Amino acid sequence: MIGIHKRSISVAGHRTSVSLEEEFWTELSAIAASRNLSISRLITEIDAKKTTNLSSEIRLFVLNNLKQRIDKKED
After folding, report:
1. Is-above-0.85 flag for pTM?
2. 55 vs 5: CA distance, rounded Å
């Protein structure tokens, strides 16, 4: 069973909680590191563009990032 982990983070200067599976936290951390950003800064950028709840937006962001990386490898 996949466990969902809730973490408190700062987004645009305010504290909030985000619940994600550990695999998404791990990948989000790797994406942030590859962009020389903190996780909070990356989530703030995701939050600014969101159209649904933040946890879903983060999952979609991670998925789209992985798909883009796969597409680049196939070129």
Report:
1. yes
2. 11
